[in-house]
Amino acid sequence: MKNLKRISFLLFIMTFVISCANMKDSNRTVSGKVEAIEGGKDGYTAKINTDQKEVYFATISIVNVGGPQNYKQVKIGDIVSVKGEFWKSEDENHIKVTEILSVK
After folding, report:
1. What is the top-level taxon of the source organism (predicted)?
2. Could you give the CA distance from residue 82 to residue 31 in angstroms, rounded to a whole number?
């Protein structure tokens, strides 16, 4: 019985550590050229091509960047740098932008 409790506790700790490690990797900074923009309800999605030839779909909304004072509208052709939560959907890279670092 003691061994079962120890093993269960060890598995719980390992799961916790692994999930915390994965959370650290979910934040990412992406920089590149805006190739397309699709409007949304309270923001837009920008298709960003990086120098490494990767494509990211960046969801930029007023709520996620912390309010209207932090929100910026980008244009096709702008060079942007954004930070946020990354995830992969099938073969597409997505980022929910939490901070707009620069727009040129």
Report:
1. Bacteria
2. 6
